[in-house]
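Job type: complex structure
Entries:
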Amino acid sequence: MSVQSRKIELYDTTLRDGTQGEHINLSVQDKLLIAERLDEFGMDYIEGGWPSSNPKDEEFFIKARKLEFKQAKLCSFGSTARFAKSVETDPNLLGLLQSETPVITIFGKTWQAHSEKSLGISDEENAELIYRSVSFLKSEGREVFFDAEHFFDGYKNNPPFALKMLLSAVQGGASRIVLCDTNGGSLPHEVTEMVRHVLQVTGIPVGIHSHNDGDLAVANTIAALQAGATHVQGTINGIGERCGNANLISIIPNIMLKLEGTSTSVNNLGKLTQLSKFVYEILNMPSNTRAPFVGKSAFAHKGGIHVSAVMKESSLYEHIDPALVGNRQRVLVSELAGQSNIRYKAQELGIAIPEKSDVIKNIVNHVKELEHKGYQFDGAEASFELILQKELGSFKPFFEVVETKVHIESGKDAKNVDQAVLKVMVGGEIEHIAADGDGPVNALDKALRKALIHFYPEIKAIKLIDYKVRVLEEKRGTSAKVRVLIESSNGRNTWGTVGVSTNIIEASLLALQDSMNYHLFTVKAALPAAESPLPQS
Amino acid sequence: MSVQSRKIELYDTTLRDGTQGEHINLSVQDKLLIAERLDEFGMDYIEGGWPSSNPKDEEFFIKARKLEFKQAKLCSFGSTARFAKSVETDPNLLGLLQSETPVITIFGKTWQAHSEKSLGISDEENAELIYRSVSFLKSEGREVFFDAEHFFDGYKNNPPFALKMLLSAVQGGASRIVLCDTNGGSLPHEVTEMVRHVLQVTGIPVGIHSHNDGDLAVANTIAALQAGATHVQGTINGIGERCGNANLISIIPNIMLKLEGTSTSVNNLGKLTQLSKFVYEILNMPSNTRAPFVGKSAFAHKGGIHVSAVMKESSLYEHIDPALVGNRQRVLVSELAGQSNIRYKAQELGIAIPEKSDVIKNIVNHVKELEHKGYQFDGAEASFELILQKELGSFKPFFEVVETKVHIESGKDAKNVDQAVLKVMVGGEIEHIAADGDGPVNALDKALRKALIHFYPEIKAIKLIDYKVRVLEEKRGTSAKVRVLIESSNGRNTWGTVGVSTNIIEASLLALQDSMNYHLFTVKAALPAAESPLPQS
């Protein structure tokens, strides 16, 4: 970092503005866990909630007193008082004080139309409301940040009004003026111009709070920083109302790796991918595979022409080294697959392939044939690895399903039945076993486990965490082929497997078998060779 | 549009660069369907594929000759020749000519390191390769666009080299120079500066092709346009390799609604949301609810404080009127279905609903309950209409499946069986019927037809043209609920129906039943009342 580097403050509002997003729901415990992580990662400010808006946020601030942050300051959020005359008894402001946070962020109207129509007050009255609200909180010993709601729209509409409101907050003692693009529709060049003007006028540090309604939240944030702003508000993974808030997961690496002359308090950017995943997990949301910097696909190369070149010199094909943000390069085995893709993949999986052998050629042919049938190994790397290991002679299936019967009954007066009956060859014997389930695929899963558990107690650890069905050749209607992708986990690792058939039950069973075989293969491979329990049959 | 408005050309590469994305897979038929839609929407150029890279793209270009575009020009894509000396016999260039498109887009290296390391040739040789490749295609009567691969990185590294390559393309006769941020890591201010320079130097129209690795693809595109570029390459929904291409679904409304003095050939921006959904459907990908402009949440207001204000004057809370892009405002107070939605939908279907009745309330409750179970009526309007007509008393089911048995057998030595046995109440009697099929769902379909054909010969006309399965609550693994969407046709009209269950067979049967009932309902409704064959039971 250069000596002149400008420190950019990171202000996270995942726990407040983030939770305004559709389907976003965080418990108090979730919020505490996330807050700790944010501090660990290196945020300067963590906005915990709006205490007087709901009891959950009040509880959060009480429990948060026990958190011991390494560097972050906790902030509570709320609006200016309702009436300028009675700020000292305003329930919202009192709620903010009761949250006992060192920093309080309050928002006020800086778009004249909002002041007039929503609050129904004069310009003077609004200015006084802002001034008094800020100075009251300040007089109680708190640092106060002022969020200028709808600033960019307000400035476009009436610059003197918008600036007057900012100056009221400065006079009241606010230490930061944060310009909010509340409706999220501003363009970067507008942000640049207005931030410059505000910096000239106010003379205190200026922040940016943008929303993604125009798909420009990250760009607007960067434009503000380039214009001189030094404080960034955003959320992890860009969660938030409508299209979301500015995504800190994209903004932070842009600041640290690309914007010259800027720095942050983040000490290990390499934990960025982990942080993103952690928040998705807590939210119980699937992560965005295409997310810049941290997505599973962010450094995944598919184009056949690229692959050999990527292997030669990856800096020519990647805008940053993925390790800098804790991500990694991947090469996708797809129908564009040539020998170099397969070799790369093998290398990635840590599998040595003899230079001079037909193995690669056989694998390429086998994979092509399967792809022609509708197989796809993106997201089913475990199935791919089994093919590879089988061809190399290091894997033999641990069992074989020799007969499958599934029986389903439902009806008004009938009993609902979802039964699977399997004959499974395992340990040299045929296990003939049946199970009921919640739907036919679940019944199959249960039956297969029942057949294997005595031979391979390790399969107990397998949890199926994701199940996807894609209909191929959709235009063939109900007789179309389907591809089933299953994601499994043993608590530490996850792996994906695939099956294809015109019969969805069959396709599911193929993916299930691969999942169990893969788990057994990896567990057994970890054992000394002598104990290898490959079946003798 | 102002008189001075600058026309921005839209170049869609969903069918080529888009398919480089992970999990993106389009059949030839899919590509043809999308191409037609893109033309209808108003794209100027549609890049169909890379003919010599795979047989699928070659087949596409053959079939695409029958498409009659209203305004778009079809483009094929490929690289410069391998050797400057033999452009006339280069298989890649010949493949491009054989695609018979009026426009050919070829890419060449404009980053010196790539030219040196990937191609292993001198600067002069690369310049000649570009010049000769372009001029050969041009001499064959095609318009040639030059995609300057890795231009921004190349210019940063060695401006004279990068510009020299552009000039070679111009000298060869290229009519557009498209600057590609191939690795996707450039910042908007860099794009601005370099586009300006290129415009000064080349003197021909300049385009921008950006990728989203820095979460800035849309911003970089806008920066290029503001700097004077007049041609935009991107994909629908931003699909594409790694983090995706620049998202045309975000760029187009930004151009048309925000960038002053610009226009496009799009004649009805109101179809934007539909276009986005259509492509997601074809890709069998869930749509991004948070997508700017078109996402389901893009105009969804959750903040309690906002809601009443939003209803008062929505322009204060929305950056654009959602109707401009075919989206709509939602208020997330309750579940999705409100009375006004239902009324709106009924009106759309041409169904009169009495003003004062409990019908609407009952429907709202019923739909809410179904949505809670995982139903969704986007793309399943026939199922929705049946609910509406049933509540209004104008529809009674034509039959009832009272018992379902499905039996599946497979195995090494066993015979493969996919059998469905149904008891169907129809015309006051129970039909007990069985059928074999190609997979269990196909067996069900056949059995149901067998049971109904004597009573309702009209069902013969029904063809199932699409069958889709989506797993809900994916994290529940094999016991998750699934939603089946079926699209049917009678040769003239198509209609969609839906079923939800933890049992995929059951979900499929529900959607099948709705499809047949809907067809019978519409056929019978067309008959005079006296002939109405509604069952008496």
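Summary: The first strand of chain B starts at residue 6 and ends at 7. Chain B touches chain A through 117 residues (CB under 8 Å).
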